Amino acid sequence: PLCSSFTLYLEDATGTAIGYASGALLNSGDTANVGTIILDDKAISVAEVTPPAGSVNVPFDTAVTVAFSEQARASTVNTNTVYLMKGGTKVSAAVSLSADGKSVTITPSQPLTGFTLYTVVVTGVEDLVYHKLPQTFTSTFTTIDNIPPTVTSVSPVNNAIQVVLDGVVRVTFS
Asked: Quick check: pTM over 0.85?
């Protein structure tokens, strides 16, 4: 082969807008049509997250979706760059990039804990021309309180004798 593969790198005069194309020239006289190359001068960003930042009463079986401003480079989207935290612990989850590369879904491997604060973290994701997310993105939400209360104390105690008829009865819940 004359050139089994090539990458064409284009940039504007300032070096901020860049574009890539690739192809192959297998025989002498071959031409390669690399199509339209659009120069990209902006870094990828997080456009939206679901559930939205600050949400409360989020169902514990919710998957998280992060939408990007542009297509993400698939090789930079993984469980080390897009993940969910419960306090200081990373939640075990699968991460999948949409077919168009513009959104990622975080699907926890187990239901989330009720009445708990979770943090969505996105860091190190790149667009198709290697522009990296400029800073780590975080967003928080709180799951619904699905933990039923329990009785922790009762006054007067069970089977108490000589209880005043107009006495106060107190029940304390968790």
From this structure: no
